């Protein structure tokens, strides 16, 4: 159905389809997806096989080669997360796994390979620097009204 569409047209269709739904979705450029995927192989984003999934991000790479995009949507456990919180987590995956900043990705490596050296305050500082911390606070304040 989208074979004759441009990447931008597909992006618009994907966004229009999910705009009215209570979920997380994205259209990820090929280069960002490849970087996230490569890094996730060495530093997985899961908490282990025994942990229950509260958020699952589904990536559809079928358009990657021809259109240069990967479609993403999510499934979340709404007893633990609302859409704004799930979106914040998806943003953090992109922030930490698709970053060009060596220092940012080093936080992921430290967490995975040297947990005794990991400092939570470093993550908070990175979130504040990126602006995501302010977005989460804004979303939390909206939930209270």
Automatic annotation (TrEMBL):
Protein localization: Mitochondrion
Keyword Transit peptide: yes
GO biological process: mitochondrial proton-transporting ATP synthase complex assembly
InterPro entries assigned: ATP11 (IPR010591)
Keywords attached to this entry: Mitochondrion, Transit peptide
Pfam families tied to this protein: ATP11
Presence of keyword Transit peptide: yes
Gene Ontology CC annotation, any one: mitochondrion
Family classification: Belongs to the ATP11 family.
Protein name in the entry: Atp synthase mitochondrial f1
């Amino acid at each position: 159905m989208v074979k004759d569409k441009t990447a931008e047209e597909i992006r618009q269709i994907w966004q229009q389809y999910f705009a009215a739904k209570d979920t997380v979705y994205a259209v990820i450029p090929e280069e960002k997806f490849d970087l996230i995927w490569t890094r996730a192989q060495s530093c997985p984003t899961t908490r282990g096989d025994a942990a229950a999934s509260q958020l699952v991000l589904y990536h559809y790479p079928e358009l990657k080669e021809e259109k240069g995009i990967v479609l993403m949507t999510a499934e979340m456990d709404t007893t633990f997360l609302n859409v704004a919180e799930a979106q914040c987590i998806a943003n953090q995956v992109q922030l930490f796994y698709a970053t060009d900043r060596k220092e940012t990705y080093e936080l992921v490596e430290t967490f995975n390979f040297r947990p005794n050296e990991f400092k939570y305050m470093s993550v908070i500082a990175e979130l504040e620097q990126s602006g995501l911390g302010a977005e989460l606070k804004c979303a939390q304040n909206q939930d209270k009204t």
